[in-house]
Amino acid sequence: MRVLVVGGGGREHALVWKLRQSTRVKKIYCAPGNAGIAGLAECVHIAADDIAGLVKFAGEQDIDLTVVGPEAPLAAGIADAFQAKGMQVFGPVAAAARLEASKAFAKQLMQKYGIPTAESRTFTAAEDALAYIRQKGAPIVVKADGLAAGKGVIVARTVAEAEAAVQRMLVAGEFGAAGKRVVVEEYLAGEEVSVLAFTDGKSVVPMAGAQDHKAAYDHDQGPNTGGMGAYSPAPVLTPELLQRVRREILGPTVHGLRREGITFQGVLYAGLMLTADGPKVLEYNVRFGDPECQVILPRLKGDLAEIMLAVNSGSLAEEMIAWHDWHAACVVMASGGYPGKYAAGKVITGLQEAAAMPDVYVFHAGTALQDGKIVTAGGRVLGVTAWGETLASALEKAYRAVRTIHFDGVHYRSDIGWRGRARTD
Ligand code: AMP
Ligand code: GLY
Known about the structure:
The protein has four domains: 2-93, 3-Layer(aba) Sandwich (Rossmann fold); 119-186, Dna Ligase, domain 1; 191-320, ATP-grasp fold, B domain (D-amino Acid Aminotransferase, Chain A, domain 1, 2-Layer Sandwich); 327-424, Phosphoribosylglycinamide synthetase, C-terminal domain (Glycinamide Ribonucleotide Synthetase, Chain A, domain 4, Alpha-Beta Complex), CATH 3.90.600. Helix content is 32%, strand content 26%. The chain has helices spanning 10-20, 51-60, 71-75, 78-84, 94-101, 103-112, 126-136, 159-171, 239-259, 292-296, 304-313, 351-355, 391-404, 418-424; strands spanning 2-7, 27-32, 42-43, 65-68, 89-90, 120-123, 140-144, 153-156, 182-186, 191-199, 204-206, 211-212, 215-217, 221-224, 229-232, 266-275, 278-285, 327-334, 360-364, 367-370, 373-376, 380-388. The strands form six sheets. A five-stranded parallel beta sheet has the order 3-2-1-4-5. A five-stranded antiparallel beta sheet has the order 12-15-18-22-19. Strands 6-9-7-8 form a four-stranded antiparallel beta sheet, with helices on both faces. Helix 7 packs antiparallel against helix 8 (159-171). The longest helix has 21 residues, at 239-259. The termini are far apart. The site of glycine has 7 residues, from loops. Adenosine monophosphate binds at residues 118, 141, 143, 153, 155, 185-188, 192, 214, 271, 282-283.
């Protein structure tokens, strides 16, 4: 099989790495890829959101399967465009991707089908949103309706903060079209966990649990990022809890969509808050999480390409998905300043030493090749991943590798996995 992977971050490096292990996969292209992916696949200069360019490339190169990493092209209809040409694509059609692309749509679906989530209302007029916020009081959460690269959620500790968020979204238009509508929702307290599942639109098969670390600094301080690290399994997600998530959330979501005439095929990601009243949905994503993918895929037994084809043909079966017992941990090495402004083009050293360490793999997130050297080219630069018999040993190996790697201004969290360790050490 000839495969095209769309995207160029750590998630896509992990997808390429896992797909390379498939006996059915003979050749992989990645658009646009990065310096790490270039060691495993042929990178092509087509942007992940250039749908016409990707369709054309796939047609010319006789690609048998295109795997879409990020949400933006899915929301823009990349799966629809490939299907219209009769080409195989892994990732949901735009109507299904709305679960991530419109929080108002997701909320409506959850309300209609009784899927547990925070109580909320959707607004387009600032005065109505402000009146609701004043009535409810703080803490309260204000969310831009559309895609905002993880920056569209404001967890307001005070009414004034929530009012300011409404002003920025609905009045000042700081979030563009994504903030023309806002969801104002109840603040939920608890521990967060990500549950991802493969679904062919009928069957829903959950993956192993994972936890990521959204805050930039240790002890969950600082601004939210795309994710500073992750680990799998998540000890908080017991088998009983996973069954409950499957029964109350994942199944009803896919079947609810089906009742609406929408077939969801691909990866459904539920970001959950484990509240005193049970798990509730914070958000849906319609693709693998980044960096959750980097810790989940190394634990997946079996052939990812086969699983993806089964999803597309509506023949996904429970027994296709099994997991290694070992624990995996990923520490993200970021550019200083991320998620704000940061410099690029810093030379990265120590990658070869890290690569030679047992049970370690360095996924590249934002890297480029410049004059024969690997340099930084993004906020998140590397996802240093390791596995071991325990979470503690996986973390120890990952951090040992992290300490051999260097670039100017490097920043990483030193407490990845702390919640898991608090439960298991
Ligand atoms: P989201 O993109 O919707 O997952 O939101 C980003 C982050 O904001 C989540 O990972 C949570 O940490 C936080 N968050 C979102 N919604 C809520 C909520 N209703 N209550 C408390 N925290 C929330
Ligand atoms: N790590 C969170 C996400 O991929 O959205």
